[in-house]
Amino acid sequence: MTHRGRVVVVAVVALAIAAVLVLVLPRASIAWSGEPPRGHLVLAGETLWEIAVALDPDADTRAVVDRLMRINHLPSVELTPGQFLLLG
Fold first, then answer.
1. 24, 31, 69, 85: which is deepest, by most CB within 10 A?
2. Where are the domains of the chain?
3. What share of the chain is helix, strand, coil (3-state, %, to 5)?
């Protein structure tokens, strides 16, 4: 590859990286509220329903379970000890 070809390739790669940074970083800073997300480390024998009741005892437990499943991208209510759940 010629010197000019290498310069063009480097310029294109640099522009692509700059474009990704411009598109991704502003969204990341908007999403960050300055506080770390609340979470829960699942213990052996815990269920999502128990965690939901402890999280919000006055709310409809089904709604809290649904919200936890949605924000954690859970396909089912099955949990694994050591799994980290975002609590919202």
1. 85
2. 1-32, 39-86
3. 55, 5, 40
